[in-house]
Fold this sequence. Notes:
Blueprint: H1 3-24, H2 31-59, H3 62-82, E1 84-85, E2 88-89, H4 91-115
Antiparallel strand pairs: 1-2
Helix pairs in contact: 1-2, 1-4, 2-4, 3-4
Amino acid sequence: xxxxTLKLMTIFAxxxxxxxxxxxxxxxxxxxxxxxxxxxxYQEADRELNENYKKLRATLDGEGRARLKQSQKRWIExxxxxxxxxxxxxLGCATQKTISRLNFLQDRLRxxxxxxxxxxxxx
Length: 123
């Protein structure tokens, strides 16, 4: 996958998120409907994040895979801390954090393909 394809996928994901998020804000929708809608958006972002994590991991050497795994664990802990309150997950926050991390992973994957992987960039 080339740079332009990755960029278009990211733009599409963000546009989809923005459109779906705006439809979730419909004042006539019930809280259940908005929660369902936000969950669908989060699930899609999380699926894309996991796909890109696997692709990036496959391009790395042993040290890079270890750094990526450590970085991912730290990101999950941060996301969980920042996006939960009294055991309740704030889906908008989790989705935004997931899309941000997805962009980070896509940038690292693009760098690996263009000029070689730099393990120092995986944190």
